[in-house]
Amino acid sequence: MVYVVRFSGVPELTDDRLVFASPITPTIVLTSAQTNFALPSVTLAAQVFPHSRGIRRIYAVVSWRKQGNSGGAANAVNTTTMKVQVDKTGDATWVNAINIPDNSLETATTSDEGGPVITGDIDIQAEVDADDQVYDFRFLDAQMDLNNLTLYDVQVHIVVEVF
Fold first, then answer.
1. Looking at residue 85, which CATH number applies to its domain?
2. Please, which residues bridge with residue 36 across strands?
3. Whole-angstrom Cα distance, residue 120 to residue 99?
4. For the chain, counts of helices (H) and of strands (E)
5. From CA 126, how far away is CA 140, in angstroms rounded?
């Protein structure tokens, strides 16, 4: 059994995953300066974890509708340390959720392209360990080859696999 929680907060029965979505952030602009960028937070309502079932793993997903490159040449990630991280609001223990490799997100010269859905393969149960919490996300060490890669309609998800 899986409950997919939509913006309305109404659970929907599906397979064996609970998916919690953040609100959409209209734009995030990544530049050639290595910086941390806040991503939208995900709220887990009270009593949404399936306490009668076990949790296999918890992972993050980040997506955006499109990405636009205004850098004047092809643009891509320019660091080996870019990550998506998660933090339970207030505890300041950021945990890696998704590794984003160097030269990924490549975008052609002055173009708009469809945005990806990036699914993390890191189990984040140690940080995402309770419902009735807000979980903050960020890009750590985000850096592009050139200014600016704009991400449109950015959304983050927490996926809880149960058994």
1. 2.60.120
2. none
3. 7
4. 0, 13
5. 19
